[in-house]
Amino acid sequence: MSGDPIHDEWYPVALASQLPATGRETRLLGEAIRVAWAGDQPEVTGADGRKLPTRLRYGHVWACPGTPARELFDIPEADQPGRRLVDVGLVRVKCSPLRAVENFLDIAHFPFVHTDILGAEPHTEVGRYDVEIRDEVDEVWATKVHFYQPQAAKSASGGITTQYMYRVPAPTVSILYKTCPPRPGEWDVITLFVQPLDEETCEVWPWMALFDDTTSMTDLIHFQQTIFLQDRSILENQLPRLLPLDPGMEIPTRADLTSIAYRRWLKRRGYTYGAQLVAA
Fold first, then answer.
1. For residue range 6-48, what is the model confidence (pLDDT) as tens digits?
2. Residues 126, 153: one domain?
3. Top enzyme class of this protein (predicted)?
4. Are 33 and 92 in a shared domain?
């Protein structure tokens, strides 16, 4: 690994299908950048004119402000025949980029924030599940997660107990694998790609790889946008605004095992952008 864990990561900086010919002016880790097309490939330029390492994958443009510590993570399902790849779009959120990822990992809020969609009372208990930091790939994984949901997906016709797996392959990326109602033997893939504008503001790019031959693309996008917009008001009111990495700063419950592992993993990697290290 390179010596700068914050600048040596890959970050999403544009949705390729919506990148105008004139380019996109944005920020990354507090610095101005420009994303533009150079022929049929994207090019990302820093404020000092330096060309940043760039990738085009999962419908998005990715950039690394420093020297990539490793190649961009792999989502094999993105290349699986028959899946619909859904570019959900952009939501700007006034919160730490790490808070956005942590919220995506939180199961317990489903009945209270996504009522009658991803959860409903009295089905509020989070059952036992497994969490681990997989050293061989340096990722956080949560498995054997299950939760009752009134409408687990746009394609679902009624309430089901949904099976989940969570994966964190990079500090500002979370991937959710969940029960696929039309194909019980497969997983739907829902991701959250987070662009840190600064330590307290981010742009969130949800993206999905689904088996769903009936729902219109517009309805798929609106369904996921509805879910995340319900989260935004919660995220923008969380205190402290930065994600605490000291386990003594917030009181966790059994449902928070994935969050605890995520914070431990960030601390171990030395990733502190958008984090609070000690109590204020």
1. 999 999 999 999 999 999 999 999 999 999 999 999 999 999 9
2. yes
3. oxidoreductase
4. no
Q: How far apart are CA 249 and CA 244, in angstroms?
A: 6
Residue type present at position 240: P
Residue with tokens 């394609």: 155
pTM confidence score: 0.89
What number of other Cβ atoms are within 10 A of residue 106's Cβ? 17
> What are the backbone dihedrals phi and psi of residue 113, each rounded to the nearest 5 degrees, phi first?
-105, -35
Side-chain-facing half-sphere of 66: CA atoms under 13 Å: 14
**pLDDT at residue 114 greater than cutoff 50:** no
Full domain range(s) for residue 94: 79-276
- Of 72, 96, 124, the position where a domain reaches its end is 72
- How far CA 53 is from CA of 7, 44, 118, 158, in Å, comes to 11, 8, 38, 45
Sheet holding 51-52, edge to edge: 24-28, 31-38, 41-46, 51-52
CB 101 within 8 A of CB 262: yes
CA distance 202 to 197: 5
